[in-house]
Every structure is written in C-alpha cells, then in structure tokens.
Design brief:
With 66 residues, the chain is mainly β. The chain has a domain of 46 residues: HSP40/DNAj peptide-binding domain (Sandwich). The strands form two sheets. A three-stranded mixed β-sheet has the order 1-5-4, with no helix packed on it. Strands 2-3 form a two-stranded antiparallel ribbon. The radius of gyration is 15 Å and the shape is globular.
Amino acid sequence: MSEHKTPSAAVTPDPEVIYTDKLRVSCDGGGGALGHPIVWYSLEDGEAECGYCDRKFIYKPNETSH
C-alpha cells in the first residue's frame, strides 16, 4: 500500500500557534472581512484551540509573540 497526501493536505498550512500572557483571548480568524465571528477563549487550562480556524493559543506568562 503506497502512502500519499491528498492535494488539499499537501497545500494546507499548519494552524497558527500564538503564545500569550493573557488568560482570556479572542480570535477573529485574522482575515478581516474574510475571517470569522469573534470568539473568546479562557486559557485557565493552559491552552485553547479556535473552533473556527484551528488557531492554538498557549498561555505562557511574560512571553508573547504575534
């Protein structure tokens, strides 16, 4: 059995990972009008994944990158 990626899997980028020092974050997809409705997530468990765009938010005190 040969293994091969489907065309969509070959061009789909990995979801964005955002590190934040906030315990509550919002996500709008980052695409302006092409994004999605704003949703809010709690990071009290250390991380959350957006249900729309799969962005992953990770809580890291005193460390941010956007």
